[in-house]
Amino acid sequence: MSAAPDADTAVPPSRTAGDADPAPRVLSGSVLRTRGGRYSLRVQGRTVAVTAILLVLLVAVMGVSLTTGDFDLSVGEVLQALFGHGGGAADFVVNTLRMPRLVTALCVGAALAVSGAILQSLTANPLGSPDIIGFTNGSATGALVVIVVLHGSMTQIAIGALIGGLLTAGAIYLLVAGGGVQGFRLVVVGIGVSALLLAANSYLITRASWQEALEAQAWLIGSLGNRGWDHATAIGIAVAVLLPLALLFARRLSMVEMGDDTARALGVSVGASRTALLVISVALAAFATAVTGPIWFVALAAPQIARKLTRASGPALVPAAAMGAVLLAGSDLAVQRMFSPALLPVGTATGTIGGLYLIWLLVTESRKSRA
Predict the structure, then answer these.
(1) pLDDT tens by residue, 64-88
(2) Distance (Å, rounded) from C-alpha 125 to C-alpha 259?
(3) Tell me, what DSSP letter sits at residue 16?
(4) pTM for the complete prediction?
(5) Which of 36-40, 127-131, 256-260 has the highest mean pLDDT?
């Protein structure tokens, strides 16, 4: 659910740069306008219903995460602990162990999904996501430099990951700026940069000591284990600032999907809008990776699943955020309960499922191109 463009047509994100504009799609739903008509919001019934269902699933996942485990609790005990009236053991389990991990999972999942939704819309390509284009590998490079070269603390590793992601985005932007920050060019250049960074990451690990290599490998897998309130607070603040900015630009993003000429005719500064949206997307992915390490394929799959369910013609950022939170929190819950007492990182689960999804996506896109 996002602010709607003034025009009543839109095209799907599968349109690639240079393709002829397909037949317009008529948007359904109701339009809510402020008095005087200065601001408007298009509300689609299916999008609202899907988002509501995802929120219900999210509440269910949260309830199971907080009440089950090695130390089972009732819903009442969890609520008492959350409001500061729980016993010593319940308070420790809920507020020190489970709640920070859950909040981190929800915020990281939402951040990655919105980042992927923006990139897929900007590139008009289903492969447009931070882990495919290279932003995630850039964050990993920044973290490895801190671990192997600077021997930094966990806080410094997070800062290094953030800087690495932003520098990678800047490098990719400079490489594609001459041809326009859009479409197939951005994806191809990003994949090339990602391959170079992956090689650099492998080299850094080979130069590390045994202990540093173990620490680096543990971070590269991507995990929500041992995440405290400092991690949850950091990603929570990032999401609280960046997600409203993304929603603020959602109307422009929908217009850019229609094509540059159409967007300009509707009064959108295409270049500035693309740059601002790219910065928001990169910042969301970089903050998420800095907190947990690389969590693969959530940014790729969550926005596409949300868009298929809602059948929205626009980027559908709110359903994508909800889907990302459900996928990551649900995956973390699954690995905790199914593989206990083994400490399986959630990045392993998302990487396995995401790899299968990527194969399916590539096969599907190949069949479409042949048709």
Answers:
(1) 999 988 888 888 888 988 887 777 8
(2) 14
(3) P
(4) 0.83
(5) 127-131
Query: C-alpha 145: how far from its chain's center?
Result: 24
Read off the DSSP letter of residue 14. Answer: T
CA angle 98, 102, 108 (to 5 degrees): 150
CA–CA separation, 354 and 3 (whole Å)? 30
The residue with tokens 């969550």 is 302
Helix H or strand E segment including 222: none
How many angstroms separate the Cα of 80 from the Cα of each of 71, 88, 106? 16, 11, 22
CA–CA distance, 321 with 306 (Å, rounded to integer): 9
Per DSSP, helices labelled H in 249-345 are 250-257, 260-265, 270-292, 298-310, 317-338
Token look-up 């069949």 returns: 367
Phi-psi region of 124 (alpha: psi -120 to 50; beta: other; left: phi over 0): left
Q: What is the pLDDT of residues 12-29, one digit of tens each?
A: 444 444 444 443 444 445
Positive or negative, the CA dihedral 318, 319, 324, 327 is positive
Those residues with Cβ within 8 angstroms of residue 203's Cβ, 6 or more apart along the chain or in another chain: none
- Parallel, antiparallel, or unpaired for β 9-10 and 25-26? antiparallel
